[in-house]
# Entry
Amino acid sequence: MLINCVAYEDGRKLADIPIDDIEEWVARPRCFVWVALRDATDDELRQLRHEFDLHELAIEDARHGHQRPKIEEYGDTLFVVMKLREARSDGLEMGEVAIFVGANFVLSVRNHSAHGFLGVRERCEREPEHLKQGSGFVLYALMDSVIDRYFPLIDAMDSDLEEIEGAIFDRGAARWNIQRLYALKRRATVLRHAVAPLLEVTGKLHGGRVPAVCAHSQEFFRDIEDHLARINTAVDAIRDTIATAIQVNLSMVTIEESETTKRLAAWAAIFAISTALAGIWGMNFEHMPELKWAWGYPMALNAIGGAAGFLFWRFKRAGWL
Amino acid sequence: MLINCVAYEDGRKLADIPIDDIEEWVARPRCFVWVALRDATDDELRQLRHEFDLHELAIEDARHGHQRPKIEEYGDTLFVVMKLREARSDGLEMGEVAIFVGANFVLSVRNHSAHGFLGVRERCEREPEHLKQGSGFVLYALMDSVIDRYFPLIDAMDSDLEEIEGAIFDRGAARWNIQRLYALKRRATVLRHAVAPLLEVTGKLHGGRVPAVCAHSQEFFRDIEDHLARINTAVDAIRDTIATAIQVNLSMVTIEESETTKRLAAWAAIFAISTALAGIWGMNFEHMPELKWAWGYPMALNAIGGAAGFLFWRFKRAGWL
Amino acid sequence: MLINCVAYEDGRKLADIPIDDIEEWVARPRCFVWVALRDATDDELRQLRHEFDLHELAIEDARHGHQRPKIEEYGDTLFVVMKLREARSDGLEMGEVAIFVGANFVLSVRNHSAHGFLGVRERCEREPEHLKQGSGFVLYALMDSVIDRYFPLIDAMDSDLEEIEGAIFDRGAARWNIQRLYALKRRATVLRHAVAPLLEVTGKLHGGRVPAVCAHSQEFFRDIEDHLARINTAVDAIRDTIATAIQVNLSMVTIEESETTKRLAAWAAIFAISTALAGIWGMNFEHMPELKWAWGYPMALNAIGGAAGFLFWRFKRAGWL
Amino acid sequence: MLINCVAYEDGRKLADIPIDDIEEWVARPRCFVWVALRDATDDELRQLRHEFDLHELAIEDARHGHQRPKIEEYGDTLFVVMKLREARSDGLEMGEVAIFVGANFVLSVRNHSAHGFLGVRERCEREPEHLKQGSGFVLYALMDSVIDRYFPLIDAMDSDLEEIEGAIFDRGAARWNIQRLYALKRRATVLRHAVAPLLEVTGKLHGGRVPAVCAHSQEFFRDIEDHLARINTAVDAIRDTIATAIQVNLSMVTIEESETTKRLAAWAAIFAISTALAGIWGMNFEHMPELKWAWGYPMALNAIGGAAGFLFWRFKRAGWL
Amino acid sequence: MLINCVAYEDGRKLADIPIDDIEEWVARPRCFVWVALRDATDDELRQLRHEFDLHELAIEDARHGHQRPKIEEYGDTLFVVMKLREARSDGLEMGEVAIFVGANFVLSVRNHSAHGFLGVRERCEREPEHLKQGSGFVLYALMDSVIDRYFPLIDAMDSDLEEIEGAIFDRGAARWNIQRLYALKRRATVLRHAVAPLLEVTGKLHGGRVPAVCAHSQEFFRDIEDHLARINTAVDAIRDTIATAIQVNLSMVTIEESETTKRLAAWAAIFAISTALAGIWGMNFEHMPELKWAWGYPMALNAIGGAAGFLFWRFKRAGWL
# Structure
């Protein structure tokens, strides 16, 4: 579905144009066309492939989605695939955007995602001094907008992690903690796969030899790389902390069990000594003089109570109870 | 066993030719010969080694199989070894294919595998505009076909993993989970050894200096590398998740055991207090006034029941029962 | 808030100057201006951006803070971001400083930190033979001062770790140890994120092609890198030791539990044999000759005591008690 | 001890020569001398050092043994150290071979190993078309022969691992498994130290700038590297699997213990309820009407049996028994 | 404290000279001065800094000690810092040596170490053919001597590890093992920090562009690197084995505990069945016919003994006892 198709010149919007007229606008020097598609049909892609002379393999990738993030050059055209990741009420959004950038065009194809890039277009049109840089700046603005949406995910994971950490030394919270740590690990993995491959290749867009379309916006692309590196570091830190937390959690369970075992041992001993003593005085020997004493029974109760009390005091002192 | 041997010119099939005529066809400019063998005999290899002037070490590798995946240059000839991996009803297929590519020939030698490349040949012949690129494109088509068969394995592992993850927090499923995780780990390892060494060397086929036969198909080989990178990332993610899952599973077992220990402790205490009390009133002292009371017995039963009930309530509240 | 703004020439202080006069001082050859801001307002940054012709992206980073440490070149201007980390009574200081360095100016913008750089300025003014090197040396002096504050953190962590290690083989200290190890791990992670990204890029400031402003102070920047490498190694060693310590701690808990289980088993057996023997002589059979013996009861007590004593001796010998 | 000393020309053996004549043979163009020593004495090494003008440091290494595998150039002479590893009835052979290769000589010094290289010499003499390449091919043949002996070790470890894996989920096999896994890990480490350092440096013998003596045998040395890479990958896979297997084994022990604990809990409860009930009817109250009933005893037995049976059924259903 | 200060020419010792005369000797071509200091005072360092024109940052490092090992070039002067590590009766020696090497001087500053380098000087003077290479060879000799002292530490750790490994599968040795493994890990870490940073930079002293003073001794410095690599590999192997041993040790504890639990369960069951049976015959029902039988008591004892014996046999067979 076509979202919009606009021609720009010198950083200013010229006109909304129909797809069929693209060819003539693209031919004008200093002019570039910015087309946005959403869940594009094969027909749309075929037409635009023709208009912008795109490579069939890139078109394949844009159509099928589920690519890994990447930046590829096909001749003078740059092909960028990014993952759209955003927290939604029903879980993590798993969309994707493919961007084709040539000297005089930008084509973005968004898949499986409700969140559009209209804000990016508006911001670009409000900053003609930047938009003047041409299609390279549009690529930057699109990438920046995608990456900016990763930060809230990091924040959410950080605060989840903090919450779990607050409970990690609580007794009895182990099962709950471990379930949440596992779920967090999965989310961190998803985000890492959106960021890490991109970080590896973003270096191509600034510094040494860069694609022609990016030449005038290098400092912006370095900023992109810096943001990606920040997210990547944050994700790695989260993953590392999760690994430690799982290990610590296991330790806590073992420690708790150890304490339970000690307490069990202590009470078992207290009851067992009482039972053993009572058993002795329950034997049926004829000649057990204390059985006949007037104070035999209270004495026995005292002996039992005393033995139990003594053990209780010992265990208490040893920290088992 | 010879599967087929065909000569092509300008992307079009010229003729099925006998092996003995290869020499004259290979001599024609713009023409190339595509030979497919299966579980080749020493004689066949000897003959073709002579026809195409192949290196003895490469022939050794093609004959013996069980090589690691690799891409090697012998003069102008490219030698590629790939693992054939496919899910079968009786486990994972463990075949191998060796491909020799020169300016005017392609020779594929398939070992221990039922699955052929006829589909590849058909697809190539249907796309003369690509086949025109020569033997390099055939290499791409063969590699692409091998790698495409890896994706269903990834999907199968992913869905297995999801199933195990669904059961990982279930009580009593630990033994079953750990067995399946271990089996999954092994499968992931097998696939990784098919993919990782290839990924390391695919970069040689596009980008900087590339072998002459690949020069015109570089973007296709970059696509190959991209697919391999995708599979490799997926396998790494699966391995990483398995490692965490094994650890989490161990935690769950420990947590469960801890809960069992607590429950055991609780019931043991309840029975032990009953036994201890009964033991006391079972002592044979002569002067135990309560034994003579009319309501002594019910009182004793109430005392025992009360003590047991009190403990039950305490343990219930503490979450041990 | 402006801290101060001073012009220097040939390593000597010329004058405190108002911000508005910067332009004319900057124009004088061999002269440079050193401006220090703290929690700068947007207005201040806007004005200085104009005076020194700074890049908007760098200004963004300086304003927002929470960047990762980095060193970036914008044309002839160097932009450095560092984390200010210092132990305070109320935890770890989490400030940040952004430094812009051009041929004839240094601008430092400090955020969220009470600790200033007045000492650095004083030291520089006391060493005119070094300050003569120009703005590059000021950058060195600032960086050196920031990094010097990391060392006490390392020392604190080392001594904490030593303390924990002293307790790691103590019985009953497991819970406490694991909590402290976890807290230590977190602190080490915070410090690592302040150091590691900086270490990666410091190599740009000495050795091969270096930014013009650093050219005369290369050996000083190599010293910076050396200090960072030392801290990084120390942090890695701490993290590694923590990981081992957590594992060892878990082992100790398991060993302790194992010992508790054995002791429990031993006492349980001793009481159980006493109870069983007493139970036998408490049976109500009519024909139990020993019940009638005059020495029956002492004999029974001896038998019970003997059995218990025998077990006690066996368990003692086996190291269970 | 001198094994043999032979001169070759154009791939054909000329004569067995005495060590003292080496000098004159070495002086003949297109001729090279191949000397094999075993557990060489200092005198032999001193003489040959003089004949071939070898570097003192290399001679030191050859004399002392216990070097790490390496490939070093001393001027035009190549110095190679390799580990001889072979399964023997009394454990792993731990020998070493040092090889010096110059334009017109090959000197191999074997230490602490019963297994010689006569087979290599014979094979070389049977292939004059290869031996014509000169001393470089002899180096290849020796290296190939050493590395070929590593493969059976890999196979043995693989089959050991398979055997352990077959027992890893068996009850009660944990102690045995862990001992064997640990022993296997050690063997894998020994083999890795023989292979990994060599793999790092073999790249120097083919591809870019290579030592003169290897120039004509580059494809053979690439084959060496390929074999080393294969062994290295196999060892890494074994080590990785061992790590997982140890972890899984620990999980299995914990699971088994958990099951034992449950069973123990169940039987303890069944006996405890019987004892508690019997204890109650063993109390000495005067007014316990059921004690006088004719059917009191059978009723009590039924009650005890019923309670025990009920618990047995509950535990059975819960999978504890 | 000055140890000695000697001038050399063409590999031969000329004279012991006072520090004040250094300047004139250094001025003579083909002559170099070798100065050795121990725990140098600030005055000594200031004077020698002046004589040899050393960089202030290097002097700082030499004075303060506690540097990481490193090799730095300051103009034509090479600055090397190495850790002195040696086993002493009272633990590990933790000294340090800083070495300055110029075309015509060598200055070594040793800190916190009793072990000197007189042996190195003697060995050098005995080998004038090597010492002729100049100050570079002295640097090699010093480095070699420092590194040679690392090997006995490796051997000691290896034999400690072997001893622990011998006890790792012993019952009851777990606590002792884990303490020793932890201590060993710490020692390995200390040694690794002495070796690894040095290994990273030793490559600068041979091969491509090397500092002028090392140019004639490159093969010797490659030997240094080789030794460092050997130690590094050995330390890594030790660390790896320790990690596995800790894990295996934990497994053994768990296995042992599991066995203890089983044994406990078994004996508990045997006593519990005896107590339960005795309890039944201890009930006070009037109509318990067996109580009146002449053979009732022996029968009861038999029943109890039989039940206990049956359980004993069952548990024995199941391997629990």
The first helix of chain E runs from residue 22 to 27.
